Amino acid sequence: MTSETQSQRLRLGVNIDHVATIRNARGGVHPDVLRAAHLAADAGADGITAHLREDRRHIRDSDIDRLMSEISLPLNLEMAATEEMLAIALRHRPHAACLVPERRQERTTEGGLDVVGGYDHLAPIVGRLNDAGVRVSLFIAPDRAQLDAARRIGAPVVELHTGRYADAENAAELEAELARLTEAAAHAGQIGLECHAGHGLRFDNVVPVAALPQVRELNIGHFLVGEAVFVGLEAAIRQMRALMDQARPAGAHSTGTAAS
After folding, report:
1. DSSP character for 10?
2. Which residues define the annotated binding site?
């Protein structure tokens, strides 16, 4: 595979949060998130995503320590925009830090980050991460105003929240949400942002999102961990990888900024 083909390949980031959720349900060390990360690498993942929540409900600080020291794949640290999480990110300096909204009472991340409304709070955090050489990503709704704000604030990457698309209850709603994602991905490419996507993606809905030419990376976790109960983690990731490659074969033309 040539370097040009590799640079254009749609990347898969595997989120291992819910391996930790299962572990924490009973305590102890099993199942091991580090083992899950190694299996993901063997199955074709291009990176590992882990969300260190303020309440430590799944990933723990010790997990981040081990992932940083023992895996070869890039680590994407999902984090709230707080001083505590900023200090952790600056200490570890992962490949990427994805800023996400976070509420204690939510089961999972329910929506995108409000970059427009939170600009003054977010700007210094984005700046400090950029200065430390951490690739900053903002997890946002597929909305032009949020994309423009992300560009102004200096984040090189956005991740489009695909939750509304994944939760669509009928064909018309699905079509409308896919149109929003399509428009947002195109706008991201036009203003020089690298575009990622994730949340709620499954075997039955990933292909249309993977086919968007401006999208450079998908981050998928909960579904893969759930599917692993039935077929194993490696098999689930390999099938997701195959669907992504089917949607946009390696070497297909894409627009937007190059991967870092």
Report:
1. P
2. 15, 17-18, 26, 53, 58, 108, 200, 221-222
- Burial readout 2-29 (b: 16 or more C-beta within 10 A, e: otherwise): eeeeeebbbbbbbbbbbbbebbeeeeee
Verify whether residue 51 is a known catalytic residue.
yes
Angle ∠(112,210,157) on CA atoms, nearest 5: 45
State pTM to two decimals. 0.89
CB-CB contact of 210 with 243 (8 Å): yes
Axis-axis angle for helices 222-231, 17-26 (nearest 10): 70
Output DSSP code: residue 136: E
CB 58 within 8 A of CB 17: yes
Identify whether 196 is a catalytic site residue: no
163-222 pLDDT, tens digit per residue, is 999 999 999 999 999 999 999 999 999 999 999 999 999 999 999 999 999 999 999 999
Give the pLDDT confidence of 131-162 residue by residue, as tens digits.
999 999 999 999 999 999 999 999 999 999 99
Q: Which residues are annotated as a binding site for 1-deoxy-D-xylulose 5-phosphate?
A: 17-18, 53, 58, 108
Domains detected in the chain: 10-247 (3.20.20.70)
Question: Can you tell me which residue has the tokens 């990622």?
Answer: 196
In this prediction, residue 253 carries a pLDDT of 45
Beta-carbon contacts of 42 under 8 Å, excluding residues fewer than 6 positions away, are 234
| Active-site pick, 196, 199, 217, 227 | 199
- The position carrying tokens 């994805």 is 98
